[in-house]
Amino acid sequence: MRIALLGLGSVGRGIARTILAKNLDITVTGLADSRSGIIDAGGIDLLAALARKEAGGPCGSPGVSPADVVAKADYDVLVEVTPTNVKTAEPALGHMRTALRRGKHVVTSNKGPIALAYPELRALAEANGVFLKYEATVCGAIPLIHGITEGLAGNTISRLSGVFNGTCNYILTRMAAEGLTYEQALAEARELGYAEADPTYDVEGIDAAIKLVILANTVLDMHATLDDVERTGITLLTPDALELAEDQDCTIRLIGEIIPGAGVLRVSPRIIPKAHPLVVEGTLNAVTVEADLAGDLTFIGKGAGSIETASAVIGDLLYIRERHVQGS
Predict the structure, then answer these.
(1) Are the CB atoms for 64 and 31 separated by under 8 Å?
(2) pLDDT tens track, the chain, 328 positions
(3) 126 and 189 share a domain?
(4) Is residue 202 located within the same domain as residue 290?
(5) 327 backbone dihedrals φ, ψ, rounded to 5°
């Protein structure tokens, strides 16, 4: 399998390291970061490219852009793992359109295009006889989308709820365990690298809402937008609120919920019993799926991280190879 890899941030480097560490028979023939790129039909020296990147330089030639790689490289699958843009989904959306029109499969961790333009991208993939895979857009290493679409095929999903954001979960875990204020727990999360300098995307529930939209549209066929999600973040929560929950043998978690039959999508802090399966610690994610045949199933795992997200991307790549590339 030949891939073109766009993005050498945390996720992109995780994918490159995984390809180097495991005998997956995957050759990278196109590679680009925001400043440079490489096209080599014979296979790119990933170790050298990573070394250049980690030394603070460009991965390749400044004269080669991501768009050049998408349009000109010889590959089977475009792996698009550039940073998410939830306003326009660009430039990732344009990259995906180009690849799909060229008859190339697409695998992505980029939430923007899947949240904003999934119907268009799915139609393009179908028209060109290729796969569009996006497991890594929701809950990192947890095979949630595959588990629902493949493992629960034939089931009717009546509700889907969970902890979708590890940053918020870490903050709430620390507030409950140590009596920290929101500000103190956020500062600790920043120091550990769990929260960005501007944490709005996480703590206001925007990240969780985007993931709900992706699940609603791709798994539940709901045709939702971000405007359809009722959203309340965690910024106003106090230690007193968590203490009151503690008195009831409960705690507070930021829960995202979809009820397909009622058209409900919401993200909000919820008081739930400590023994509930969605009460996970630290940066873990957890999602409960209520299905008519299978009953309730809860998926728990790491929702972010370089290698963890790479796990989902690699899983999608091997899925495509088994079902399409080897038989082509």
Answers:
(1) no
(2) 999 999 999 999 999 999 999 989 999 999 999 999 999 999 999 999 999 999 999 999 999 999 999 999 999 999 999 999 989 999 999 999 999 999 999 999 999 999 999 999 999 999 999 999 999 999 999 999 999 999 999 999 999 999 999 999 999 999 999 999 999 999 999 999 999 889 999 999 999 999 999 999 999 999 999 999 999 999 999 999 999 999 999 999 999 999 999 999 999 999 999 999 999 999 999 999 999 999 999 999 999 999 999 999 999 999 999 987 554 4
(3) no
(4) yes
(5) -95, 0
> What string of DSSP letters covers 54-74?
HTTS-SSBTT--HHHHHHHS-
Asked whether residue 7 falls in the same domain as residue 133, the answer is: yes
CA–CA separation, 215 and 221 (whole Å): 8
Q: Is residue 246 part of a domain?
A: yes
In terms of domains, do 249 and 269 share one? yes
Q: Report yes or no on 147 lying in a domain.
A: no
| Whether 112 and 160 share a structural domain | no
What is the tally of structural domains in the chain? 2
Domain annotation covers residue 118: yes
CB-based contact 301:285 (threshold 8 Å): yes
pTM of the model: 0.95
Q: Do you know the residue count of the chain?
A: 328
Instruction: Identify the CATH number of the domain in which residue 124 sits.
Output: 3.40.50.720
Residue type, 296: D
- DSSP, collapsed to helix, strand or coil, labels residue 168 as helix
Range of the structural domain that residue 205 is part of? 152-301
Determine which one of 53, 104, 111, 211 is catalytic: 211
User: In this structure, are residues 139 and 164 in contact, taking their beta carbons and an 8 Å threshold?
Assistant: yes
Same structural domain for residues 35 and 175? no
Told to judge if 133 belongs to the known catalytic residues of this protein, a careful annotator would answer no
Do 297 and 313 have their domain in common?
no
Q: Within this chain, do residues 177 and 131 fall inside the same structural domain, yes or no? A: no
Question: Rounded to 5 degrees, what are φ and ψ at 30?
Answer: -145, 140
> Does any domain span residue 146?
no
Rounded to a whole number of angstroms, the CA Rg of the chain reads 20
296: left (phi over 0), alpha (psi -120 to 50) or beta: beta
